[in-house]
Design a protein that fits this description.
Layout (H helix, E strand, L loop, with lengths): L1 H4 L7 H22 L5 H6 L6 H10 L4 H14 L5 H4 L3 H17 L5 H9 L1 H34 L3 H50 L1 H11 L13 H4 L4 H23 L1 H8 L4 H17 L1 H14 L1 H9 L9 H9 L4 H37 L5 H26 L5 H25 L5 H23 L9 H24 L36 H19 L1
């Protein structure tokens, strides 16, 4: 990566002034948010008081971290248009499902976290397994965002990796520990606009340099990968399957169903933003509002990666030979280096910093909630005053940041960080989704099935990864992640059904509000009066409009 080369970006005083101004705003928001924090609920869930437009933008901004900016631009440079599936198949449908179907259960049950929902549905064993696995996943993913944040600091100032990591971590820690979730969410709203302002000019200038849309089409067709990289389907290079049918099945089932629904519907990083909303309707609208910008983000993330692969000499060399001083993760930085003038470069760098900070802050704020409520309060130190857990939450944030400094070095070993992230999602999210979806719609599923399905599902995903790494399975691209996710889902379902049939379920009276068939319909309906009145605030209608748009995009670019 650019970090490894120790090469400085050609920033000047204007760029540094813009960056300094951005940091003033970020830290100022953290300080102001601290004044509103008086209880642990304020710190961890913003007192459930935020409007839908704020939580909706924060919902999507929390995901605009390393996965979106560096990972997706790297995927765009390597695979081209098939990367669109991560948004149009692998995100939006699941976000709509979360809003319409699952948020009424989460918000209506008044749980403080996804693992707490597992506690109520399945009991302590499943609760502890989910809490520990989620905590591990978050510090690993936080390390990705921190590593990339440090790479920008290194590229600007030339500081060593460890110094850059500590400085970057200190900035994110300062506002997250001060203001809790509110500081993270309001910064995420600011960061959303900064990110768009940073990446849109890069796409426009890149298209101008490459000869417009037709110029990009011609150059991609003539380059490594060829014309296949200009259509989203069947995406054989991305999935690693040479057969078109198997590739499409892998995308729809592995990415579009298991990985996508597993991530968006059970990942507390995202769900936490919706839980901070002020009403059931606002909670449902949060992921649906986020779906609208989500479907258009590929045009300012993936397209620059595709342009870099045919325009930037170092990237063209790497794509053709697999050798060179840079790799796919450098696509965005190299585009900034070569195409943006000073001033605009400062805005672009602020956008990158914003994306990595938003991602890391989201990881930290969800980690401190789960660790404090679901591990520390539940199993280690119980029955303390609320002020104790508020203070503990801040110390947990500090500890998680220090661990993320260590996990950042793991992320540094991957040429395409999206490969690493998809592996993590197949380990942690795919089996959790299987447990959730079965337990939510099948009242017979038992507490023993809840934890055993998770354990065996995760183990099967790890087994697929090991076989792929050792050459037992030949799965290039991100095929190993798709197969691992599918295996985790199927194994989890099979084990859960088998264990459920052999063990005793909970009484139906204990499952009200937790299982679809046992929950009164009226308790799942959002309000349509007061602040929730108006057709444009109806979750079902908004989800329908988003679904029509996403189908149209798949047809147009398929």
């Amino acid at each position: 990566m650019l970090l490894a080369q120790g090469q400085l970006l050609d920033a000047n005083g204007v760029d540094y002034a813009l960056l300094a101004l951005y940091f003033v705003f970020v830290l100022g928001i953290g300080y102001l948010a601290k004044r509103a924090v008086s209880t642990s609920l304020d710190f961890f869930l913003s007192g459930r008081s935020l409007p839908a437009w704020v939580t909706g933008l924060a919902f999507i901004s929390a995901n605009l971290g390393a996965v979106e900016i560096i990972g997706m631009s790297a995927n765009g440079a390597e695979y081209g248009m098939p990367t669109m599936h991560y948004f149009w198949i692998g995100a939006v449908p699941a976000m709509l499902f979360l809003g319409v179907v699952m948020m009424p259960f989460y918000y209506g049950s008044k749980v403080r976290s996804v693992p707490e929902f597992m506690l109520r549905r399945f009991g302590k064993a499943a609760h502890l397994v989910n809490g520990l696995s989620f905590a591990l996943a978050q510090v690993l993913i936080a390390g990705v965002n921190l590593y990339l944040l440090a790479s920008i600091v290194n590229a600007l100032l030339g500081w060593p990796l460890w110094v850059s990591l500590l400085v970057a971590a200190a900035v994110v820690l300062s506002y997250t520990a001060l203001g809790g979730l509110s500081a993270a969410i309001y910064n995420e709203v600011l960061q959303f606009f900064v990110i768009v302002a940073a990446l849109a000019p890069l796409t426009i200038v890149g298209l101008m340099k490459v000869g417009g849309v037709q110029g990009l089409i011609d150059k991609v067709s003539a380059g490594t990968g060829g014309a296949e990289q200009l259509t989203a389907w069947p995406g054989t290079e991305l999935t690693g399957f040479s057969n078109n049918f198997l590739s499409a099945v892998g995308l729809v089932f592995g990415l579009g169903f298991v990985l996508s629904f597993g991530y968006w519907t059970t990942n507390f990083v995202e769900v936490q933003r919706a839980m901070a909303s002020k009403s059931m309707s606002a909670a449902q609208r949060t992921p649906i509002i986020g779906a609208f910008p989500k479907m258009f983000i590929p045009f300012i993330v993936i397209i620059p990666g595709m342009i870099a692969a045919v325009l930037i000499p170092e990237m063209t060399q790497y794509k053709a030979t697999g050798e060179g001083p840079y790799d796919y993760n450098d696509a965005i930085l190299l585009m900034m280096r070569d195409l943006l003038p000073n001033g605009i470069l400062g805005i672009a760098l602020a956008g990158l910093l914003a994306s990595f900070m938003a991602g890391m802050a989201a990881n930290l704020s969800s980690f401190n909630t789960v660790f404090t409520y679901d591990i520390w309060q539940s199993y280690i130190v119980r029955n303390k005053p609320d002020s104790y857990y508020l203070k503990m939450g801040r110390w947990v944030t500090v500890g998680a940041t220090l661990v993320a400094v260590g996990t950042a070095f793991i992320a540094s070993g991957y040429a395409n960080l999206m490969d690493y992230l998809q592996q993590l999602f197949s380990f942690f999210n795919a089996p959790l989704f299987a447990t959730f979806i079965l337990g939510m719609f099948w009242k017979r599923m038992t507490p023993h099935a809840g934890w055993s399905g998770l354990v065996f599902g995760t183990a099967s995903a790890v087994a697929v990864f090991v076989m792929s790494e050792t050459g037992v399975l030949d799965l290039p691209g991100q095929g190993a992640s798709f197969v691992a996710a599918g295996a985790a889902f199927v194994v989890d379902i099979v084990v859960s059904v088998a264990v459920s049939l052999a063990t005793r379920p909970k009484a139906e009276a204990e499952l009200t509000g937790l299982v679809w068939g046992l929950t009164p319909r009226e308790s799942l309906r959002a309000s349509t009066t007061g602040e929730d009145a108006g057709w444009y605030r109806r979750p079902g209608l908004l989800a329908g409009i988003a679904l029509i748009l996403i189908i149209a995009l798949n047809i147009i670019f398929g």
